[in-house]
Amino acid sequence: MVARSFFSMLSTDLAIDLGTANTLVFAQNKGIVVNEPSIVALRKDSGAVEAVGSEAKEMLGRTPDQITAVRPMKNGVIADFKATSQMLCHFVQKAHSRKRLVHPRIVIGVPSEITPVERRAVVDAAFGAKASEVHLVQQPVMAAVGAGLPIAEPLGNMVVDIGGGTTDVAIISLAGIVYSHSVRVAGNAMDEVIIDHCKRKHNLMIGERTAEAAKIEIGSAFPLAKPLSMEVRGRDLVGGVPRAVTITDAEIREALSGCISAIVEAIRLALERTPPELSGDIVDRGIVLTGGGALLKNLDVRIRRDTGLCVSVADEPLTSVALGAGQMLSDFKLLRKMSMN
Questions:
Q1: Alpha-carbon distance 49 to 53, whole Å?
Q2: Helices 208-218 and 249-272, interaxial angle, to 10°?
């Protein structure tokens, strides 16, 4: 027992929430050591990495011709294999204080409906980052563990993980997934519809960062007690000159209505396909929301209205997947039971 404790203190094992919007890395005995945007800035001529994470995000929409800032993850899966491998290598080294000879065991969260080809790409990217072992676990399971749900008990637990690229809905009981469904509508899709709304209604082209700021500051899924507004700046599509307009929470809510309806419909579908005994548990225990999208104002109110069930937001929705994956690092029996590979 003493030897095991000693070696666990020296452990290099990592748990990674490889998200479309952000990547989080949990190191055993240290907690979350990396929390940065999933963005890589590359030189077009050589493909060399110019910047990764927060530094690369600062370059979005502002790069010169010879540099491009890309999001290598799309809808929760790898869209650019080489850039993803480079990004993972950077974050793994950062988690280990730039030590290059470390070969950690890595646990990675993936969407519940990832295809075998997409799964292989994630595994290969992790091995490219010098992993010694790679274990893939469905993100809603990790989110449920991170949110403190008793997934190993004979009870129905319903978790809705709203990330950047996907929304995963899952019913979990006895450390197994009874039902899961993934829709590729989440935070990034919300940003895109806000950009489209500003184009159509205001003839204004805004960037990703501005759209995300509007979503966070005044976005909502249900009417607010107090109306909100904010000024956004972009390029006038008619005159081609910089311009600023004021937008309101009501128009952003209208723009987001399609995304919210898709998420609610995925929840309804899950409830319709849940076995009766577990349905009773969910009536008692309610639905838990995790992921960055769970922070959208009044989303819990909207889901509560449409389902009639109690809805709560996890204590730390942004980090639930990473925290859950981190717990699995110290419980390999549970990890092997939940691993997809």
A1: 11
A2: 80
In 3D space, the residue among 46, 262, 6, 25 whose CA is nearest the CA of residue 129 turns out to be 25
**Taking a C-beta distance cutoff of 8 angstroms, is the pair 236, 195 a contact?**
no
User: Rg for the chain (alpha carbons), in Å?
Assistant: 21
* Distance from C-alpha of 153 to C-alpha of 179, rounded to nearest angstrom: 16
> Between the CA atoms of 8, 111, 339 and 9, what dihedral angle is there, to the nearest 10 degrees?
0
CA–CA dist 139, 169 (Å, integer): 10
Cα separations in angstroms, 293 against 181, 185, 299, 338: 17, 10, 9, 25
Give the tokens for residue 148: 């403190």
Superfamily of 2-141+320-338 according to CATH = ATPase, nucleotide binding domain (3.30.420.40)
Task: Kindly tell me the burial class for residue 227, based on how many C-beta atoms sit within 10 Å of its own C-beta (0-12, 13-18, 19 or more).
Answer: exposed
pLDDT digits (tens, 9 = 90+) for 288-305: 999 999 999 999 999 999
Q: Are 321 and 24 in contact (CB under 8 A)?
A: yes
Question: Do the strands 22-27 and 31-37 form a parallel or antiparallel pair, or are they unpaired?
Answer: antiparallel
DSSP 3-state assignment of 79? coil
| This prediction's pTM | 0.87
- Domain spans in the chain, listed from the N-terminal domain onward: 2-141+320-338, 155-185+263-316, 187-255
Quote the DSSP letter at residue 297. B
Residues, the chain: 341
**pLDDT tens-digit profile of 132-164?**
889 999 889 999 999 999 988 999 999 999 999
Which residues fall within 8 angstroms of residue 160, CB to CB, at 6 or more apart? 140, 167, 168, 169, 263, 266, 267, 287, 288, 289, 290, 291, 294, 303
Residue given tokens 């991170």 in the structure block = 146
Q: What is the pLDDT of residues 47-99, one digit of tens each?
A: 888 999 999 988 877 778 888 888 899 887 888 888 898 899 889 888 887 66
Distance CA 79, CA 86 (A): 13
